[in-house]
Structures are given as structure tokens and as C-alpha cells.
Amino acid sequence: QLVESGGGLAQPGGSLRLSCAASGFDFGMYWMGWVRQAPGKGLERVSNIGPDGTRVYYVDSVKGRFTISRDNAKKTVDLQMNSLKSEDTALYYCATGFYGTAPSDVRGQGTQVTISS
């Protein structure tokens, strides 16, 4: 099970921190990440982190602004989002897997992020 928190409304240029609490599987063995879905669009891979936290991926549009991290002891994965833009507005899902968008990947219920002035 994956439970996201931390979404909300922020102004352009602002920051939000998303957190995901995992349970029911061997968290430390899995790639974890965040994917998002903007209104009218498909799932987009945002960021992923390897099992030991040393390998990370960011989609080009968030590089330098978002930082992913994980705590295997607490079974959590976080996404620090800075310098937010209106185009970051989406429903953000915590996900298992290298991509997070594959049919076999498990995703949470999502947390809404809205960037607006």
C-alpha cells in the first residue's frame, strides 16, 4: 500500500514537499518514484530512486527543481518540489518500479498539486 501526503495549492515559484508511506512489501528492494497526471493528459514519469538511494532519475522538466529521497528504515519516499510552475499542476502518485507508469507498477491514490497565483 502507498499513501501520499503533502499536496496542495502553491504559488508559482513556491515549494511543496510530497511524502509517501509504504507498507505491505519489502520496500528496500524496490525502485520507487513519483508520476503525475495533468488534466486531460496521460501519466508522466517525474522522478525515480533506486533501492539504495544512490541512483535517481528526473524528467527534464523538473531537473534542478525537484529532489527525490527515500528512507528505507521508515519506508518513505519524498519529493521536494521547488520553483514550482503552473505546468507542475497535476495529480501526483507515488509508485513502485523503475518507471512507475507500467501497468504492473503499484500506485497510490494520489495527491493533488495545484500551482496558481
Folded structure, characterized:
- 0% of the residues lie in helices and 46% in strands.
- The chain has strands at 2-5, 8-10, 16-22, 32-37, 43-49, 56-58, 66-71, 76-81, 90-96, 111-115.
- The protein contains no helices and ten strands.
- Strand 4 (32-37) and strand 5 form a beta hairpin.
- By secondary structure, it is mostly beta strands.
- The strands form two sheets. Strands 2-10-9-4-5-6 form a six-stranded mixed beta sheet, with no helix packed on it. Strands 1-3-8-7 form a four-stranded antiparallel beta sheet, with no helix packed on it.
Largest sheet: 6 strands, mixed
From the N-terminal CA to the C-terminal CA, the straight-line distance is: 34 Å
Reading side by side through the largest sheet, how are the strands ordered?
A: 2-10-9-4-5-6
N-to-C series of helices and strands = EEEEEEEEEE
- What sort of overall outline do the alpha carbons produce when their principal axes are compared? globular
* Count of DSSP H/I helices: 0
Poorly predicted segments: none
- CA-atom Rg in angstroms: 13 Å
Overall pLDDT score? 96
Helix fraction bin: under 10%
Structural class: mainly beta
Query: Strand share of the residues?
Result: over 45%
Number of strands: 10
